[in-house]
Backbone:
């Protein structure tokens, strides 16, 4: 990439992408200082490797791929000292709430049946939806959010999530269930039913 058409030297463009990167990293790591650190590392790597950027993808996509790798490395470091199989009181209460949503035959109870979300494709196109989604994600218990983000955002395979966090496949599936249910309830309350107010 020539210096003349390098957005990485444009302060306005750099400030905008940095803001997006910090928000993304903060959601993954749940630690603002750590998020700032990995963003700095990713930007430094992008600046030093700018000549290698082949242009086969958008520059922002390439930079976020670097950031994603930095986040994955950081999660692997943190996973060695974090035991996510130990449930917090908040996560235990999510289990009780989850169980109350279903009848004995595993069908939804009438009161808990998911609401009609209208046209999801239209909602996904709205920027406000993602603001509410991020707020809902931040309100998940930390361990639940970590497993969900590793699987859905960072695209770890389930066996890799289990290996990194020292949890069983069944425990991982329960945590993912918990996360999806928590997000569903939050979105129904704050977006699809009540409007566009964040959690």
Residues:
């Amino acid at each position: 990439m020539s210096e003349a058409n390098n957005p990485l030297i444009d302060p306005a463009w750099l400030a905008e992408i940095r803001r997006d990167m910090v928000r993304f990293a903060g959601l993954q790591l749940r630690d603002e200082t750590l998020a700032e650190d990995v963003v700095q590392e990713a930007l430094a790597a992008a600046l030093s490797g700018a000549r290698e950027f082949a242009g086969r993808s958008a520059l922002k996509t390439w930079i976020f791929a670097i950031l994603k790798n930095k986040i994955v490395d950081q999660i692997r470091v943190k996973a060695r000292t974090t035991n996510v199989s130990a449930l917090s009181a908040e996560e235990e209460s999510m289990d009780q709430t989850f169980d109350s949503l279903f009848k004995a035959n595993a069908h939804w109870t009438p009161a808990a049946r998911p609401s009609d979300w209208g046209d999801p494709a239209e909602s996904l196109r709205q920027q406000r939806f993602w603001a509410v989604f991020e707020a809902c994600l931040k309100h998940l218990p930390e361990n639940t959010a970590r497993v969900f983000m590793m699987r859905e955002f960072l695209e770890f395979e389930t066996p890799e999530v289990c290996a990194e966090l020292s949890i069983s496949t069944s425990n991982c599936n329960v945590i993912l269930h918990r996360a999806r249910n928590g997000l569903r309830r939050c979105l129904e309350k704050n977006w699809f039913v009540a409007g566009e107010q964040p959690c």
Q: What stands out?
A: The first helix runs from residue 11 to 29. DSSP finds nine helices and no strands in the chain.
